[in-house]
Design brief:
Helix 3 packs across helix 5 and helix 4 packs across helix 5. Helix content is 40%, strand content 25%. The protein folds into 2 domains: 114 residues, Roll (2,3-Dihydroxybiphenyl 1,2-Dioxygenase, domain 1), CATH 3.10.180.10; 65 residues. A hairpin with a 5-residue loop joins strand 6 and strand 7. The longest helix has 22 residues. By secondary structure, it is an alpha/beta fold.
Length: 187
């Protein structure tokens, strides 16, 4: 079996204002905004920034505790979990969750700092296949006079990844408003 290999680290800093973060990191410090993601307009943002050989993420979470998160990319995440479970049985479990269903083994220290060891990102593997199928599914629903499907419905009908379904839904004019009205109705 191939040995696990931790090959990069991506710190995640909490921010409370997208506008202020862009002004600080991009406009002032000269970092490049590599990508940003939010479920819908007006929702908190997650963004990746880089400059030279340094990259990290900013996570807009008002009221978030001051503890830090660090994301480490790992080759053969399952072997790493086995290694840790050999030392402390039952201590390590790989979880897969929304929005991008990246296999993750999270470890939190006694002070609240979290190291999230992440395996391969499945989005890159399924994007080419599922992205056009998601667009077709959503357009078909709209052509039939139905409302926008939820991201979960798109994922269930077409396949992974939930974050990809959200990205594709946000390409459609009117989705942000539909999302907001659906959210308001459920509260």
């Amino acid at each position: 079996m191939e040995q696990p290999r931790i090959h990069t680290m991506v710190p995640v800093f909490a921010i409370s204002s997208y506008k202020d973060a862009v002004a600080h990191y991009v406009d002032w410090l000269g970092f490049k905004l590599d990508w940003e993601w939010r479920e819908a307009e007006g929702q908190p943002v997650i963004m990746a920034i880089s400059r030279d050989d340094v990259s990290f993420m900013l996570n807009e979470s008002p009221g978030r505790p001051a503890a830090s998160d660090v994301v480490l990319h790992v080759r053969n995440l399952a072997a790493l979990a086995e290694e840790w479970n050999a030392r402390r049985p039952g201590s390590a479990s790989v979880q897969v969750g929304p929005p991008y269903e990246i296999p993750t083994l999270a470890v939190t220290d006694p002070w609240g700092n979290t190291l999230s060891f992440q395996g391969e990102n499945p989005v890159d593997q399924v994007r080419e296949r599922n992205e056009p199928r998601m667009r077709e599914y959503i357009q078909q629903k709209l052509d039939w006079g139905e409302q926008f499907p939820t991201p979960e419905e798109v994922r269930e009908a077409v396949g992974p990844v939930l974050g990809l379904a959200i990205e594709v839904l946000n390409e459609f004019p009117g989705y942000a408003e539909a999302f907001a009205s659906r959210k308001d109705a459920s509260w």
